[in-house]
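Probable U3 small nucleolar RNA-associated protein 11 (Drymodes brunneopygia), 253 aa
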Amino acid sequence: MSAAFRKAAKARQRPHRERAQPASRTKLGLLEKKKDYRLRAHDYHKKQNALRALQKKALDKNPDEFYFKMIRAELKDGVHVIKQSKDEITLEQVKLMRTQDIKYVEMKRVAEAKKIERLKAELHLLDAAGSGQGRHLFFVDTRREVQEFDIAAQLDTVPELVDRVYNRPTIATLQRETVKGPTDPVHLKTLAQQRKNQYDLLRQRIEREKAMFVISQKIQTRKDLLDKTHKVKVKKETTTRPAIYKFKFQRKR
């Protein structure tokens, strides 16, 4: 082949052009041909190797092997979902049982009980304002006595002290002694609010002491379950009491 023919054939060849970049990748900028190809090839082979490993693991697995997720899982819309157990126990109880032992819980419960007794001694179990209206029943014989009934005269006190359920002196006491304590309505309202706050604190401490007692019982139950004696669950665990088990009687030597 002559040089002139080769030159003419080369002139007739169309110039090679790279494939246009897809419109979905224009936001990524211009691609470097060699570098982009290497990255895509490396990612492709990595995924293929992972798929092969998973396929081998599935083939090696014994199809008759039992595991607990078989009974704790269910199929929803083609997806395996683990069934959530409905434990009758609060999150605070779980955290406390996992971190503290029964001796610590008992110590905290006894401390709460002492604080409760101290608060009761200070408040003398008086009814706080708004905590519930007490009732004092009076018995009369006729309807006329009901219409003409005077509470202040019946209680032998002044009308201003009728609404007080505590520290209600009689008229004779008021004539014999001077009034002690605050008499200003604003000051009395402040004292009533403070007394109500103290009763709220007392109620919270009583609830906390009950919760500590329940936690202590649950921890003790779990400790008793470590024994290898045959046992049968009688009642399930709830938020207010531990589970109840019946243990087989064993005669001690």
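Residues 185-224 form the longest helix (40 residues). The radius of gyration is 42 Å. ok done for today
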